[in-house]
Design a protein that fits this description.
Blueprint lengths: L1 E4 L5 H14 L11 H11 L3 E6 L2 E10 L9 E8 L8 H15 L4 E7 L3 H9 L3 E12 L2 E11 L16
Helix pairs in contact: 1-2
Protein name: Phosphinothricin acetyltransferase
Organism: Cribrihabitans marinus
Keywords: Acyltransferase, Transferase
């Protein structure tokens, strides 16, 4: 298995994985299928923040991050997404993708990664918890798909430690 930066040529495989998740699950609230040309543009705009996992020469998963919210105060917070082909789940590929994505994010100056997870996706919530993400909020019934109201679970992981306070030497006795 290899984790690498995505290329435009990966857009079709990424679309296949994403569209299966959109069509067949409640993992994402969207019902709009992804088009390879749109994904190719996203890959170009986010490189090197768009990664794929390959197994036996086939793309079997992808992960990326982008802005959490607009405005300069949020510049060090990003929201990520990760999706795996159904047959690739439970084999450590998601962990490998996230380890690399977190390293890229740290290098990019990201302090906090946020995950917005469907409340119907117990596997995704557990996966993120095992990686050190903490649930920080739950928004009941904010999504709707397949005739169901769905909760949005917000999880976050702080990637860089909080700076230690430096004693004020001007007031320290000595």
């Amino acid at each position: 298995m290899t984790v690498r930066t995505a290329r435009a040529a990966d857009a079709g495989a990424v679309a296949r994985i994403a569209n299966a998740v959109i069509r067949d699950t409640l993992i994402t609230f969207t019902t709009d299928l992804r088009q390879p040309e749109d994904i190719a543009r996203q890959i170009a705009a986010r490189a090197p923040r768009f990664l794929v996992a390959e197994r036996d020469g086939q793309v079997v998963g992808h992960a990326t991050y982008g802005p959490f919210r607009t405005g300069p105060g949020y510049a060090h917070t990003a929201e990520h997404s990760i999706q795996l082909d159904e047959r690739a789940r439970g084999q450590g590929l998601g962990r490998a993708l996230m380890a690399r994505l977190e390293a890229v994010a740290r290098d990019d100056g990201i302090h906090v990664l946020v995950a917005g997870i469907s409340g119907a996706n117990a596997g995704g919530i557990g996966f993120h918890a095992r990686l050190g993400f903490a649930e920080v909020g739950r928004m009941p019934q904010v999504g709707r798909k397949a005739g169901q109201w769905l909760d949005l679970v917000l999880m976050q992981k702080i990637l860089s430690p909080r700076p230690q306070a430096v004693p004020d030497t001007a007031t320290a006795s000595g």
